[in-house]
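Cross-posting from the chemistry board since nobody answered there.

I work mostly on the small-molecule side, so proteins are not my area. We synthesized zinc ion and want a rough idea of how it might sit in this target. Sequence and SMILES are below. Is it possible to get a predicted 3D structure of the two together?
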Amino acid sequence: MEVSEFLIESVLHEKFGLAQFRPKQREVIDLVLAGKHTLALLPTGYGKSLCYQVPSQILPGTTIVISPLIALMQDQLSGLAKRGISNATILNSSVSMDDVDFRIAGIKAGAYKLVFVAPERFESPRFRNLLEAIDVSLLVIDEAHCISQWGHDFRPQYRNLSSYVAKLEKATILALTATATPQVQKDILQSLHLPQLHLVTGSFDRPNIRFEVEQAGSSAEKDKFIFKTLRKENAISIIYTSSRREAEGLSDRLRHSGISAACYHAGLGAELRSRTQKQFESEKITTIVSTVAFGMGVDKSNIRRVIHYNLPGSLESYYQEAGRAGRDGNRAICTLLFQSKDIHTQRWLMDRNFPSASQVERAFKLIAANGINAMRLSEIQSELDIPESALNSALDLLKYLQLIDTAPDGSFSARVLSSPIDMNWLNQRKTRHTQRLEQMIRYAQDHICRRRQILGYFGQSTDVCSGCDVCEPNMILACATSTDPVNDRTATRNSRSADSNLSQSILQLACQLSGKVGRTTLAQILSGSGAKKLKESGYTRMPLFGTFKSFKQDQVLSEIDELVEADDLQVSTGMYPKVQITGSGLAKMKNASSSV
Ligand SMILES: [Zn+2]
């Protein structure tokens, strides 16, 4: 479809009230409007929803968005309503039958440009008939990593989508995800069986976030770190725990010591959750202690700290949760508190996600014994003594083996009355989960740049780390470029100490870039030079960039030469001599950082 530049821009301004697109959004929108199937891999901060919201208002037919969670759909709908866009609706199990009838009639009559559905909806013949009766211009698969069995959040309902996608011949397909390893990307491409899929990828690097791992000997030490940090920073923070009990306990302890904190998890009532979320958004509460339930759809860009109280199950989960910090582009810090005991807890928790062969068999026999009467998850659970997560995995396997069906309301019924159960699929899944957990453990234990580990996991790389506890154990100077009012006091103090300590910064920078650059580049970085190659190599994003703007480049160069003279730095021989820190330079740097 030929769409004028003017039309796209005016939809953006008038309907969405936005001045301009963020990077990559326009590229995706252009592809979609040109009818090209696209996989957009846009990490947090790129604003992936706009990539279908804008086309939905331009394309002639309906846009169908497949989304895995009711909460996500509702967030989208209320976000659109706030902008005055009312031609969107939802079809999921939370909608009453009467309402479903009403909405389907509306979709047929063309009253809705945008329809959010759960993947299970495609199993309903009525919905499939509807799709045949209307003109679907765009089919969006949100959270597309759920298609992949390699992903951290695989959902079997997503796996079946490809057969329905193939039937929607006229629709353009847009698969969106904020998180996908190279293997998951490949899996998404293969599962969709499309002749061609254009790939748009955003960088996974979040230069404004500093990553840290804090080793703790006990829970008391973790608490001590949290209390100290929150008191000192008094900034908007999220603390993630792995259990509801821990979230409640920690938020109680924080409140008792006078810190503005609240607890959030899926076990709390909807009203309390929504109240807590609102109080956090309006900053009446500055710290949320939460299970992973919190964060999806939280529209708060100035979160300055994300602390993980426990080890997450995978780097994808970790990065997704940590990535909620600093969405405004200002400096933020993500800390993982790590106690070696956490490894055993996580392994134990992971085991609980996987049922034994006899548990799967019991679940299947129970559903089959009910014949044509579909059973709800809560009914199955009350009959069998199996942990919820293991039961869910058992049901996933039974669905995968096509032994049971799921109705659009989420209830289960058996397709056959008896059958041997092959556990192979579930065993493979367990192996992948174990591998991911082991990678997460390595992240916490290895003394390797955290940013490089994360980016490497997503198949990307960087020459420059803009801040982690490995590359930059002494964070003080890193804060000097902060534009954040919360840290401004520290920043001023630091830039003063930086002024008096040019040699320390040179040593630190030489250490971070370890033999990659020569003396001129070092001096250019510190004096904030406008040279093009600095920007191209990513050096302008380093926290030390421009810390000595008030100095002439020559002054910095002569200081570098003095350090070489004193044997704190050494310069390699060859056509392009590079600067490297020496043992004595390293010792001076460490001494200075411990005395700060
Ligand atoms: Zn690093």
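Reply from a structural biologist on the board:
Welcome over. Reading the output above for you: The chain has four domains: 5-201, 209-342+447-485, 349-428, 498-595. The longest strand covers residues 209-215. Happy to explain the token format if needed.
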